[in-house]
Design brief:
The structure holds two protein chains of two kinds. Chain A is of the alpha+beta class. Chain A contains seven helices and four strands. A four-stranded antiparallel beta sheet of chain A has the order 1-2-4-3, with helices on one face. The two termini of chain A are 43 Å apart. In chain B, α2 packs antiparallel against α4. Classes of the chains: A alpha+beta, B alpha+beta.
Amino acid sequence: MSSRTSLQVSPAPSGSSNALVPPNLALLADPPVRQMDGPAMDYFVIEMVNTLRESAAVATARSKRIEQEMIEAGLIPPPAPAPPALPLKKESARDSVTSLPSRTGSAAGKTVVDEEEEAVRVRLETIGMHVGANFTERLCRDRPLFSETLDAIKFICKDIWAACWDKQVDNLRTNHRGVYVLQDNAFKPIARISSWEGRAEAIKRAKLYAAMPGGIIRGALSRMGFNGTVTPEITSLPQCTFQIKLPKGA
Amino acid sequence: MPPSLRLNAVAFISPQNHPILIRTFSPQDDPIKYHYIAHTSLDVIEERVTSAGKSVECYLGLLYSMEDVAIYGYITPLRVKIVLALALSDAVVKDVEVTMIFKALHMAYYSAICNPFLKLEAANDTSSDISPFLLVGSPKWRKFRQRVDEISRVAGNATATTSAT
């Protein structure tokens, strides 16, 4: 299997180039790059989504149970009972008012699934934010300061994309008012997804795999000082767009 | 031969201008003096960064010098400032050596900040980055302090070890 470097920093210079600096200091300043097998990262990300799905289901079941106990103990008022005869539309409208998992009955199957997807998505995005923030620290080591916001976005499009997914962003659009759209025509994490249920189903499932990359971008932006939101969108399969909304004044 | 560089103090300051770590290595000085020095360096750094406009280099060089210390500054692209106080001496201080020290300090900071358990409680709140930094005295940052001590020790032995290649 081919290996690609996990970091794009060149390894420490050999001792003869800086004869004035003691080798210990040079080693501390530029530690040798540790390399990792490239595909291992791809497998890890795929498996992570499945594992987190199960763990999120356990966590929501636990919080549901606690809430049920609190309802029985009379600490919080019981939610409005949802008679199963009502159509699904009305039920979900009422459910949006009550607290998170307090639902009864069978007809709420669809909304429960969405809520679990949301929990997994939030976990993936948080992990992505940690990874993105710290990775940006590392990548920013040898470059000068960012002169403006567009410079920071271009850094994301080139350096982070190249380090994580081996290519650069294909298209960057902006409306010059804080909204940037990054388009990648062959986004690596979802490039090989296919589903036996057909195209539409594959696209639906692929949304979750784009959550962590969205988190990476968001983490990188937050470390650079821009607290915005990142929304991944997938319309046709290997193509993915990320919409970055930065707050006013950025 | 006496060592050419004596680190008196190192200070890390966050992008929101909160102190992260101020570590002093000279036993005869009051640590509060270096807090004051770090604070005044902030103004000098701000002035240098805003006046430089496009394409500012990370290493800011000598900021100013007081009665017995020379202050050097460094700003990372993510706006973390590192301030170094070196004891004034007659020996020539090489720029490349100070830059190396700053890079080593940046690596130590990066290794400490990458710890995912540092901000375990603050889940999605990305706007207030100051909360983990206020806990710098706590054991989670111990490794960071050790690394900074190591860097100062290595730099202090600068001329004692010749580069054998």
